[in-house]
UniProtKB/TrEMBL annotation, chain A:
SUPFAM superfamilies: Alkaline phosphatase-like. Pfam families: DUF1501. This is DUF1501 domain-containing protein. InterPro entries: Alkaline_phosphatase_core_sf, DUF1501.
From TrEMBL, chain B:
This is DUF1549 domain-containing protein. Coiled coil: none annotated. InterPro entries: DUF1549, DUF1553. It comes from the Bacteria.
């Protein structure tokens, strides 16, 4: 039992049970490249039906605004189409851009929204809007999908942060009014150990340091509020959680060094691809939400060239993520969301770029009970704006409602903000076409 | 030969002893150039008026107040509030060399003349004025803006005049840095013009501590009587501000059209204030000039309440009225029933020509500011709520890194520090802030810390670099090598990091640690460990 373990409450994971599971696992075969913990969990998951397992989300975040015309919604031969060609996909009648041939092979596993519309054309505001389902409000910060998920679902057995952001952008997913403890844990390329996790000194010296800390904490507590730690600072609890994480086998899920090269290659072996591979490991370890960011979509110049390069990165990583999750029987309880803060203008500017366009862009979804093989909405081949009133238009808040609904979160529930203001989990309504049993 | 050796040993001993004496003993007090403390006759009366209100509340709620905190604890609060870091060992020696009766008043004055005050307070206030976003490219110069604001604070420019510049100044963002308040809102993707709605929101929150922006999209449906038109009529004061090649200027007669919720069509919105309309000048200057006059009018008390509440919050970590930018205009406050301390501070601020430095001196002198956060009797949340005990509040990331850096240096890190030190500190600060997590505009959040923050402090580069064996740079190493004995060494480390001396239990524990031979270590390593523990405890990360 670690120090301050008693403060973690009944949901803390005892290391002893953890080790026993690990020991059991080592008898397992066929999953040798997985980290020990992932092997245990993977073996367990093979035995269980996916029914009843808590659900998770992987957000593939295309920071900068991906062009719908160079990815999910090409219009070849039209004025707005540029140089992008369209190719057939595994979903009959659906064509996507030729920049994404691997994804084209698995489109039958996905749902595609081609008519997403919002009112935010600024990167920061639009990112906030897409990540929280709310437009920026100066009076409070809304929680992101991952924060809500962690707030609503049990933490049982998980010794590492359950909300993780890989390659976080400057607008990282926040806990907002739910509290900082729901902020995403930020990490970068999952090769090598996580920064700040390895102890700087040998074990016995580190333990002695913690002993010193106990003396100081006892002094500080003396004469002060009895509930200071529990109700306000959470300092010792956080130290304890951090040290638990440092000594947990689950931190193996944060790095992919042990994964065979051929598996990495399937994900593209780019930083983003490695991030996606890591995201699948984290999900198997019990993490509820992982956001992996692919930056560089803000192509105000040389749009086709840059978008094609980015789409190539995305193509390998996205298709491998979905295939991997399906092979591991994890796709039914993991929603994969792929999108950015807005799309790009149908009109190509004089610098051969496309500018910001929130009036009709694409978001792709897969897994987690979202109905697959659905394509909702279409954009105008001449580039007219899509508004919320356009047929089959999808509002950002409706995507949030759909995801929360699929995750089993009661979207009619209200949160209380710190000043007692009731705030709905999300403003939208679930998109009926995407609800699997609709 | 042996004579030479003896001479060398004697010389080396003298040099080392002198060095140790210079590093660890009290530096000479050099306060003669500091300003003479001028306390106006009515300063004490104002302080007593504030204290009386707090005492009345404590009595009414039957709260036994905590005793007065010791001088070093209060000095730490003052330093964190005015410079964003803890006092250095050098400064602690200076403080302790002052006579008891003027020690803290001198310390406040000393810091108010230190550039760190201007820079830190400007950084904190700028968050309310222009937010924490990067803002529009080229036309928004955050650094220039903050430097200008720092200059104004150092000069102690009357706060009403400073605010008038922010609202109504014209010109280029470089030559007239105040206009960055306007350019920060320019919509570069859309109209290319200042955003009148955002400006109205900023004015009401930053300068009036009212959240009228809640009615931007619809009338107040939470029981208030504010209308959507109240917000847009205020926004209309900014309608003539426009962005041009000569910077921000006003185009007379430019209309502001807006379609209200449920309205059939747009209407032209007149400029009007949501309350105290009689204080708007009938004519003279631009619309923005008239708005600035109304906002800063001595009778428009929400203006002074807003800055008093914010400065109190910067100095203590918690505002008198929460949230800091939402002091209700209605309800019990309408009858003048404000929280203890606010009204007398506001009255004194207005009576003394919006003097920010006087306000700071007054806050630091109040009983509430000086209460301890602990007592022999039980301290409860109610004590903290009523300021019968000083509330324990989370340090901002800038305060944490400022304190880590300061604790690792025996001398004061300030504008006089070596340029290399400042450069290294600047680079490390940015990296640390990014990793630790900036709280943004949510300045006074009461949330606890996070796991990444703890990991960064326990295993991160900064604490490791600032505590490891490095005689030239690190206080921990110097203390370990130069202290005459273990007790002095432990005491010095506590003073450097926690601005206090160790209690008997702590002293015994850490001196025992130094003598413990079970874990093989050297002395500088022991002090690296002691510093690590001191920098990782709750006491270091929270204001108390």
């Amino acid at each position: 039992m670690t120090r301050f373990q008693h403060l973690l409450g009944p949901e803390g994971c005892g290391t002893s049970s953890h080790f026993s599971r690990r020991t059991l696992l080592q008898a397992g075969a066929g999953l040798a490249w997985l980290t020990p913990l992932s092997q245990v969990l993977a073996a367990t998951s093979q035995e269980k039906s996916s029914k009843g397992r808590p659900k998770s989300v992987i957000v593939l975040w295309m920071q900068g605004g991906p062009s719908q015309l160079e990815t999910w919604d090409p219009h070849p031969g039209k004025m707005i189409g540029g140089d992008t060609k369209a190719i057939d996909t595994s979903l009959k009648g659906l064509k996507i851009a030729d920049t994404m041939p691997l994804t084209a092979e698995i489109m039958h596993e996905m749902a595609l929204l081609r008519c997403v519309t919002s009112k935010e054309g600024d990167h920061e505001r639009a990112t906030y809007n897409m990540q929280t389902g709310y437009r920026p409000d100066p009076t409070l910060i809304h929680p992101s999908i991952g924060a809500i998920l962690c707030h609503e679902l049990s933490a049982k057995g998980v010794e590492i942060p359950r909300h993780v952001s890989i390659f976080p952008s400057e607008f990282s997913a926040r806990g907002g009014f739910l509290g900082n403890k729901y902020d995403a844990f930020k990490m970068y390329d999952p090769t090598g150990p996580l920064p700040d996790l390895p102890k700087r000194v040998p074990e016995d010296r580190f333990d002695a340091r913690l002993g010193d800390l106990d003396i100081l904490e006892a002094s500080f507590a003396r004469g002060r509020r009895l509930d200071l730690e529990k109700k306000k600072t959470l300092h010792r609890e956080t130290v304890d959680r951090a040290t638990t994480m440092m000594t947990s086998d689950q931190i193996d899920a944060f790095n992919i060094d042990g994964v065979p090269q051929e598996v990495k290659q399937q994900f593209g072996d780019t930083p983003f691809g490695r991030g996606c591979l890591c995201a699948t490991q984290l999900i198997e370890t019990g993490v509820r939400c992982v956001q992996v960011t692919l930056n560089g979509w803000d192509t105000h110049a040389n749009n086709h060239e840059f978008q094609s390069a980015k789409a190539g990165n995305l193509d390998a990583a996205l298709s491998a993520t979905i295939k991997y999750l399906k092979e591991r029987d994890r796709l039914d309880d993991t929603i994969v969301l792929c999108g950015g803060e807005f799309g790009r203008t149908p009109k190509i500017n004089p610098a051969a770029g496309r500018d910001h366009w929130p009036h009709g862009f694409s978001v792709a979804l897969a897994g987690g009970g979202i109905r697959k093989g659905v394509v909702l909405g279409e954009t105008d081949p001449e580039g007219q704006k899509i508004t919320a009133e356009t047929k089959n238009a999808v509002r950002v808040e409706d995507i949030h409602a759909t995801i929360h609904d699929a995750l089993g979160i009661n979207i009619d529930k209200d949160f209380q903000t710190p000043i007692g203001r009731p705030m709905a989990i999300c403003q939208g309504t679930a998109i009926p076409e995407l609800v699997a049993d609709a | 030969m042996w004579l030479k050796n003896i001479a060398f040993i004697v010389l080396a001993t003298v040099v080392l002893a002198s060095l140790a004496n210079w590093l660890l003993s009290p530096p000479k007090v050099e306060a003669v150039d500091d300003p003479v403390i001028v306390v106006a006759d009515d300063f004490q009366a104002a302080k007593l008026a504030v204290d009386a209100q707090f005492q009345e509340v404590w009595q009414a709620r039957e709260l036994q107040p905590a005793p007065q905190a010791d001088d070093l604890t209060i000095a730490r609060r003052i330093s964190l509030g005015l410079t964003g870091s803890i006092p250095s060992l050098e400064e602690i020696r200076l403080i302790e060399n002052r006579p008891d009766e003027d020690r803290l008043a001198w310390w406040v004055n000393h810091l108010l003349e230190d550039r760190r005050y201007g820079d830190y307070m400007a950084e904190r206030l700028s968050r309310a004025y222009v937010g924490t976003e990067n803002g529009p490219f080229l036309i928004f110069r955050k650094r220039r803006f903050v430097t200008w604001l720092s200059d104004q604070l150092m000069e102690n420019r009357p706060y009403n005049e400073l605010t008038q510049d922010l609202i109504a100044d014209s010109g280029l963002w470089t030559d007239h840095p105040a206009v960055n308040f306007i350019t920060a809102t320019v919509d570069q993707d859309g109209t290319k013009e200042p955003d009148v709605a955002m400006l109205a929101g900023r004015v009401t929150r930053a300068f009036l501590a009212t959240r009228i922006d809640c009615v931007q999209c619809h009338d107040d449906n939470l029981g208030g009587d504010l209308k959507q038109s109240d917000f847009h009529e205020l926004a209309s004061f900014f309608r003539e501000a426009q962005n041009s090649f000569v910077g921000i200027m006003d185009k007379k007669g430019k209309p502001y059209d807006y379609q209200y919720l449920h309205a059939e069509e747009e209407t032209t919105v007149p400029a009007q204030a949501p309350f105290n309309q009689h204080l708007i000048p009938e004519s003279g200057g631009t619309l923005r000039n008239r708005l600035a006059s109304w906002v800063t009018h001595p009778e428009n008390k929400p203006f002074s309440r807003a800055i008093v509440n914010r400065v109190w919050a910067v100095m203590t970590g918690r505002p008198l009225v929460e949230p800091v930018d939402d002091i209700p205009l209605k309800g019990s406050f309408e009858k003048g029933n404000f929280p203890a301390g606010l009204d007398p501070l506001v009255d004194d601020f207005i009576a003394h020509n919006f003097d920010l430095k006087r306000l700071i001196r007054l806050i630091a002198a109040t009983e509430a500011f000086g209460r301890d956060s602990r007592a022999d009797h039980e301290i409860t949340a109610q004590h903290e709520q009523a300021w019968a005990a000083f509330p324990v509040t989370r340090l901002r990331p800038e305060q944490v890194i400022g304190s880590v850096n300061q604790a690792s240096s025996l001398s004061t890190l300030n504008a006089d520090s070596h340029v290399l030190t400042k450069l290294i500190t600047y680079g490390e600060t940015n990296d640390f802030l990014q990793r630790y997590g900036d709280a943004g505009e949510d300045e006074f959040s009461m949330d606890g810390g996070t796991i990444p923050q703890r990991l960064l402090m326990m295993n991160g580069n900064l604490v490791t670099e600032r505590t490891k064996n490095n005689f030239v740079r690190n206080a921990a190493t110097r203390i370990s090598q130069l202290s005459p004995n273990d007790e002095t060494a432990v005491e010095t480390a506590f003073l450097c990091v926690l601005t206090r001396r160790p209690n008997p239990v702590e002293l015994e524990h850490f001196t025992d640690k130094l003598e413990n031979e079970e874990i093989p270590s050297n002395r500088s390593q022991d002090f690296e460990d002691i510093y690590w523990a001191l920098m990782n405890c709750t006491e270091f990360a929270w204001n108390h």
